[in-house]
Amino acid sequence: MAPRNALSATLLTLACLLTPCATLTTWATHTLTDTPRYVDTMAPLATNPAIREAVADAVQDEVVQTLSPQPAAATTTDNPLTPFIKDAVRSFTRTPAFRTAWTATNEAVHDALLRALHTDTPGPVTIDLAPVTAQVRAQLTADHMPYAHRIPVEHTEVAVVPETEVAGLRRGFHMLDAAAFWLPLAAVVLAVTGTAVAACRRRALTATGLGTALGGALLAVAVAVGRRLTLADLPDRIHRPAAAAVYDALTATLRTASWLLLALGLTVALASWLTGRREPPPSTTASAAPSRQPPATLPRP
């Protein structure tokens, strides 16, 4: 009985350890690599004040550096056009055209990254801004913006990932894609096998539920710690609220999955425990048939 319990405990422990890892890889593969789902996740951020402020600052710096002959270090502070440019960019971030540009840019970047990950084409990951510009021009024209139809649509290639980092991203993606298939399968097989070989399957099921709940709680803690570390590593503290908004939007599904694991594990453990309490205790008294003694016979004289 002891070897069976030891084997069952080992298999169930491995299954519970693989469960949060399998959830993480499945989320990364099927959420971050799906362009429509990614675009739908990022689209609401166009109305986030932190995102609009970060975009306004970036566009303002780029425009001022382009227009000013001064060095880049003193451009944004010494140029008298800076307040007017920033006000104009902030006003643009509140328009439907900005939301169109935000969605189109995210879709273009995501498509370019997927093409780079699925193919072995050398070179950096670049996007063409012409489709984005065309959509923005169409939106501004629909809003009756003066001279919007004269905005030139030029094919401009912008690098989003340098060539030195593409190979590492591709290898990591292939490993993640393989893990997203094998880790969930291994977790299920280990859990079923560990429960089947256990001497008491009800106790094994209770332990599996508690281990799954613990894995969900650890995954939720890992998401929170990852958020803190990601924001702490950002060099620009001003744009940390925008980065926090993006992180929270991307990991919303992962946080929900971690809480579902916690709830499911506790439910299974509680149901198994209650089922064991309702079972009647085994009877320890055995009914014994009365022994029939032969009648005593008197000795004959």
Structural commentary:
This protein is mainly alpha-helical and 301 residues long. It contains 11 helices and 2 strands; from the N terminus they run ααααααβαβαααα.
Please tell me the overall pLDDT: 79
Structural class estimated from helices and strands: mainly alpha
**What is the CA–CA distance across the termini?**
64 Å
Percent helix range: over 70%
The total strand number stands at 2
The biggest beta sheet reads: 2 strands, antiparallel
Question: Strands of the biggest beta sheet: in what spatial order?
Answer: 1-2
Number of helices: 11
Give the C-alpha Rg.
Answer: 32 Å
Question: What's the arrangement of secondary structure elements?
Answer:
Blueprint: H1 2-30, H2 35-42, H3 49-67, H4 72-78, H5 82-92, H6 96-118, E1 125-128, H7 130-142, E2 157-161, H8 163-197, H9 201-232, H10 240-250, H11 252-278
Antiparallel strand pairs: 1-2
Overview features:
301 residues, mainly alpha, 11 helices, 2 strands, 71% helix
